[in-house]
């Protein structure tokens, strides 16, 4: 929830932003009442501002009256320098991995205590996944998320440890087990998952380094199993990550 934006002194801009921030991965479609509640606004105020956002293309009102995020808002979001520059630089390396593996290939960054997907390539050989471009998913249950979490600040790691929600029967939900995994990620330079986000899907991912050596992004692939081609997949990811790092000036 965006907070008490109905309080005196809240600006029109802050109230409009509260409406936009009311949407997330678990709340992609909101009725007017839900939108007002999550934004902390009176229903009449939410209705008026939502109407202006619909007129501007930031929101879309469906036939049943519910609101969803508009395409125009996503188009503007893609102009953020970290996304456009990184996606452009990483594109040829991601395409190379996809051509070799025909698996789902991800490029992601950390967004607070979540992992934000900037790119996803998939094909006929890909396994079903819940990721999509622009999605923010739990870090503890995804390969790219673990690759980034292992190098995240202490306070971010602790925030994730406090909410290890089970997504499948195989999701790591014990902080001590996850901490041990993150230590292994730092030692091995790669992170893996085994059906922790989606049943039937395993992943392996590596971090992409920036100029100062920090993990600025992660590249990963999702496959049915890691038992056969783990070494080949890891090698392809490492080559790609090194290429992106060099292109970033790292």
Summarize the structure.
The chain is an alpha+beta fold and 250 residues long.
Give a topology summary.
Elements: H1 12-21, H2 32-39, H3 43-55, E1 59-61, E2 67-69, H4 71-77, H5 81-101, E3 104-111, E4 114-121, E5 136-138, H6 143-149, H7 154-161, H8 175-188, E6 191-194, E7 202-209, E8 215-223, H9 230-248
Helix pairs in contact: 1-2, 1-3, 2-3, 5-9
What does this structure look like?
- The protein has 250 residues and is α+β, with helices and mostly antiparallel strands.
- It has two domains: 12-70, Orthogonal Bundle (Arc Repressor Mutant, subunit A); 78-248, GAF domain (Beta-Lactamase, 2-Layer Sandwich).
- It contains nine helices and eight strands.
- It has helices at residues 12-21, 32-39, 43-55, 71-77, 81-101, 143-149, 154-161, 175-188, 230-248, and strands at residues 59-61, 67-69, 104-111, 114-121, 136-138, 191-194, 202-209, 215-223.
- The chain has a six-stranded antiparallel β-sheet with strand order 5-4-3-8-7-6, sandwiched between helices. A two-stranded antiparallel sheet has the order 1-2.
- Strand 7 (202-209) and strand 8 form a beta hairpin.
- Helix 1 (12-21) crosses helix 2.
- It starts with 11 loop residues before the first helix and ends with a helix.
């Amino acid at each position: 929830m965006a907070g008490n934006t109905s309080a005196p002194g809240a600006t029109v801009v802050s109230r409009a932003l509260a409406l936009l921030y009311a949407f997330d991965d678990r709340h992609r479609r909101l009725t007017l009442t839900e939108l007002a509640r999550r934004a902390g606004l009176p229903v009449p105020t939410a209705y008026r501002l939502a109407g202006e956002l619909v007129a501007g293309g930031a929101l879309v009102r469906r036939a049943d009256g519910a609101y969803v995020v508009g395409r125009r808002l996503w188009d503007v979001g893609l102009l953020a320098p970290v996304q456009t520059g990184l996606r452009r630089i990483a594109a040829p390396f991601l395409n190379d991995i996809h051509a070799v593996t025909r698996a789902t290939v991800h490029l992601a960054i950390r967004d607070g205590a979540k992992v934000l997907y900037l790119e996803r390539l998939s094909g006929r050989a890909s396994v079903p996944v819940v990721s999509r471009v622009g999605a923010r998913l739990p870090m503890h249950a995804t390969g790219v998320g673990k690759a980034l979490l292992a190098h995240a600040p202490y306070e971010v790691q602790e925030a994730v440890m406090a909410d290890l929600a089970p997504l499948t029967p195989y999701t790591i939900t014990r902080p001590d087990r996850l901490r041990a995994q993150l230590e292994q990620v730092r030692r091995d330079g790669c992170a893996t998952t085994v059906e922790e986000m989606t049943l039937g899907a395993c992943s392996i991912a590596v971090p992409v380094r920036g100029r100062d050596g920090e993990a600025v992004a992660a590249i990963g692939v999702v496959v049915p199993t890691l038992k056969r081609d783990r070494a080949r997949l890891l090698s392809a990811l490492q080559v790609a990550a090194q290429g992106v790092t060099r292109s970033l000036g790292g």
